[in-house]
């Protein structure tokens, strides 16, 4: 089976990036979200990313326009998914929600269609268990920001077939991505490390070890990380990071207990770049404007 049409479910931070990569890779894309405003924000973000690609010489203007023309937005799951060869789910990191969406997709999609989850931490076996096609379910874990990050982790569920793995690796390759195959275990590889490092940086901020800017600068210049862990947490979304840590804490134990300061930021609605304010502050254009003081 050759993938031609991809449906992306959830048009938040990751869904919009995956839709971008899929359209640039030449696939027909249906992008679905339950919230109309999330779809509208995604359309604007994709247009911005395409123009950025043109500016950086990665795409011609004609390529960017053609990619945009391959994306349609849909507020109905059935309409978005019924013709798809591959569905990539990118809704919130909540097991019950993912299980329910996979159940619905199993009924809506064509028999050959592959259902992939972009979960950061959770079990693709459990997400697929309510479907009648666990052999055609898998995790495709993209990284943020998707247009720039080269990796897709492929995680097999217990019944995922070799053919499914082959097809999703090829689809990721057509999106310009490299793949690694990882066995199912909470958090997989980069996500598990990143959650720990980010949580530790949050503890340092809470303990007053250094300012947010200096913690990030120390890690960038001292350890050679391309980005500071606090800046990365804002990019990931502090709510998403918290959900990841909660799941890792529940499944892997004490060392993943979410830092109380992270919980406080999420309670305050300071979710990071996507809400304009997290550990740092961001302007309308998504660029960082000024560092905020520690709580
Ligand atoms: P997000 O909060 O930015 O977006 C989630 C979107 O899902 C929202 O637009 C919401 O309206 C939509 N949604 C909620 N319920 C829905 C439903 N029933 N049907 C359709 N859409 C629905 O979240 P995100 O950061 O894009 O994360 C999405 C997934 O990707 C999560 O599983 C997360 O763990 C994973 N992930 C996130 C990152 C990251 O850096 N943010 C990186 C890799 C993987």
Overview of the molecule:
By secondary structure, the protein is of the alpha/beta class. The chain folds into 2 domains: 5-182, NAD(P)-binding Rossmann-like Domain (Rossmann fold, 3-Layer(aba) Sandwich), CATH 3.40.50.720; 190-289, Orthogonal Bundle (N-(1-d-carboxylethyl)-l-norvaline Dehydrogenase, domain 2). The chain is 47% helix and 16% strand. The protein is built from 12 helices and 10 strands. It has helices spanning 13-24, 36-55, 61-69, 77-81, 95-108, 124-128, 162-174, 190-207, 212-223, 229-236, 238-252, 260-267; strands at 5-9, 28-32, 71-74, 86-89, 114-117, 137-142, 151-156, 178-182, 280-282, 288-291. An 8-stranded mixed sheet has the order 3-2-1-4-5-6-7-8, sandwiched between helices. The longest helix has 20 residues, at 36-55. Nicotinamide-adenine-dinucleotide binds at residues 9-15, 32-35, 38, 90-93, 97, 101, 118-120, 142-144, 236-237, 240, 274.
List keywords for this structure.
295 residues, Rossmann fold, N-(1-d-carboxylethyl)-l-norvaline Dehydrogenase, domain 2, 2 domains, 16% strand, globular, binds nicotinamide-adenine-dinucleotide
Topology:
Elements: E1 5-9, H1 13-24, E2 28-32, H2 36-55, H3 61-69, E3 71-74, H4 77-81, E4 86-89, H5 95-108, E5 114-117, H6 124-128, E6 137-142, E7 151-156, H7 162-174, E8 178-182, H8 190-207, H9 212-223, H10 229-236, H11 238-252, H12 260-267, E9 280-282, E10 288-291
Parallel strand pairs: 1-2, 1-4, 2-3, 4-5, 5-6, 7-8
Antiparallel strand pairs: 6-7, 9-10
Order the strands across the largest sheet as they lie in space. Answer: 3-2-1-4-5-6-7-8
- Ends: how far apart? 53 Å
List ligands, each type once.
Answer: nicotinamide-adenine-dinucleotide
Average of per-residue pLDDT values: 96
Full CATH superfamily name of the largest domain: NAD(P)-binding Rossmann-like Domain
> What is the level 1 CATH name of the largest domain?
Alpha Beta
In which range does the helix fraction lie? 40-55%
- Main sheet makeup: 8 strands, mixed
Query: What is the CATH architecture annotation of the largest domain?
Result: 3-Layer(aba) Sandwich
Number of strands: 10
Instruction: Tell me the radius of gyration.
Output: 19 Å
The number of distinct helices, counting runs of at least 4 residues, comes to 12
Class of secondary structure makeup: alpha/beta
What is the CATH topology of the largest domain? Rossmann fold
Name the beta content range: 15-25%
Binding site for NAD(+): 10-15, 33, 93, 98, 120, 144, 274
Protein name: 3-hydroxybutyryl-CoA dehydrogenase
Pfam families: 3HCDH (PF00725), 3HCDH_N (PF02737)
Keywords: NAD, Oxidoreductase
């Amino acid at each position: 089976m050759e993938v031609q049409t991809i449906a992306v479910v959830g048009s938040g931070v990751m869904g919009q990036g995956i839709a971008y990569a899929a359209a640039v890779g030449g696939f027909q894309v249906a992008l679905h979200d339950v919230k109309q405003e999330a779809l509208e924000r995604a359309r604007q973000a994709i247009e911005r990313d395409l123009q950025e690609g043109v500016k950086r010489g990665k795409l011609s203007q004609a390529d960017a326009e053609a990619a945009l023309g391959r994306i349609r937005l849909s507020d109905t799951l059935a309409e978005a998914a019924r013709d798809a060869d591959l569905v990539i789910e990118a809704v919130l990191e909540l097991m019950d929600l993912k299980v329910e969406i996979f159940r619905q997709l199993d009924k809506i999609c064509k028999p050959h269609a592959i259902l992939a989850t972009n979960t950061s931490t959770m079990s693709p076996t459990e997400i697929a268990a309510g479907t009648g096609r666990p052999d055609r379910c898998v995790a495709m874990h993209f990284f943020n920001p998707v247009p720039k990050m080269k990796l897709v982790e492929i995680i097999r569920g217990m019944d995922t077939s070799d053919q499914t793995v082959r097809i999703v690796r090829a689809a990721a390759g057509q999106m310009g991505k490299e793949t690694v195959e990882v066995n199912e275990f909470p958090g997989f590889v980069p996500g598990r490390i990143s959650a720990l490092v980010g949580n530790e940086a949050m503890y340092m901020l809470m303990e007053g070890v250094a300012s947010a800017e200096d913690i990030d600068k120390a890690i960038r210049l001292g350890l050679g990380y391309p980005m500071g862990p606090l800046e990365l947490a804002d990019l990931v979304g502090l709510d998403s990071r918290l959900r990841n840590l909660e799941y890792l804490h529940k499944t892997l134990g004490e060392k993943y207990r979410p830092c109380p300061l992270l919980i406080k930021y999420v309670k305050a609605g300071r979710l990071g770049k996507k809400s304009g304010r997290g550990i740092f502050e961001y302007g309308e254009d998504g660029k960082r404007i000024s560092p905020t003081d520690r709580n």
